[in-house]
Amino acid sequence: MPGIGAIGARCRHRPRRRPVHEWESGGEASRASGEGALETAIWSFQFRLIVLGDSTVGKSCLLHRFTEGRFPGPRHAEPTVGVDFFSRLLEIEPGKRIKLQLWDTAGQERFRSITRSYYRNSVGGLLVFDITNRSSFEHVYDWLDEGKMHAEPFQIVFILVGHKCDLETERQVSREEAEELASNCGMRYIETSAKDAINVEESFMILTRDIYELVKKGEISVRDGGKG
Ligand SMILES: Nc1nc2c(ncn2[C@@H]2O[C@H](COP(=O)(O)OP(=O)(O)OP(=O)(O)O)[C@@H](O)[C@H]2O)c(=O)[nH]1
Ligand SMILES: [Mg+2]
């Protein structure tokens, strides 16, 4: 990781549809130092994103696909213990790179006390359900409540992700009802497959661009030099 201050993203809670955010930042200007110079570094902002959802919906595979370009074989698909960390640079427009710090949380209830402590430091979240698993969709409201409660007094910008869209014949949640739920909760909706590499890049890109637009509009304020 380059020797550059990190950005933490925070959203101040306000009774309005769009959250107002407060941020720590590594500074607008790109900087390089030490080992970071090797990366000729390179990013304008650093966003912390959290990935949430029931166990087995495919959160870790989504992150492996996004950060390493591969789908882990069945032997490597182990439930996450607590929280895992990934990162990647994303170029959202020519010359504008965002460093993403990605927190992959365990969906299993027994790790909830650990995963809860990661909400407050996240500006964005991918709320993932499995389109072939109806109960994972029914738990979306619970995950949203969990996110809201533990991010207070800030808010997280969420995108709803219907995962495993390669399994169309096993679908238990229609695209229409997922879109309706997302719209009711002020989220975008996208369907992805880590297995077939469908919309994985796009899901992170859309969320990152939305957050970046909020930064540009001043709805997310940026703090300089935080370590995250
Ligand atoms: N068909 C299909 N299977 C997938 C896809 N993504 C993940 N899987 C499978 O879903 C299972 C669970 O994947 P994980 O990524 O470990 O699930 P998780 O949400 O991280 O689970 P926890 O860590 O317990 O919260 C594994 O058997 C994966 O191979 C996908 O896009 N398509
Ligand atoms: Mg996992």
Overview of the structural elements:
The chain is 26% helix and 25% strand. It is an alpha/beta fold and 228 residues long. It has one domain: P-loop containing nucleotide triphosphate hydrolases (Rossmann fold, 3-Layer(aba) Sandwich), CATH 3.40.50. A 6-stranded mixed sheet has the order 4-5-3-6-7-8, with helices on both faces. Strands 1-2-9 form a 3-stranded mixed sheet. The longest helix has 18 residues. The N terminus is likely disordered. The protein binds guanosine-5'-triphosphate (GTP) and magnesium ion (MG). The site of magnesium ion has 5 residues, from helix 1. It is found in: Autolysosome membrane; Cell membrane; Cytoplasmic vesicle membrane. It holds the Pfam family Ras. Belongs to the small GTPase superfamily. Rab family. Keywords: Autophagy, Cell membrane, Cytoplasmic vesicle, GTP-binding, Lipoprotein, Membrane, Methylation, Nucleotide-binding, Prenylation.
State the main characteristics.
disordered N terminus; Rossmann fold; 6 helices; 228 residues; binds magnesium ion; alpha/beta; globular; binds guanosine-5'-triphosphate
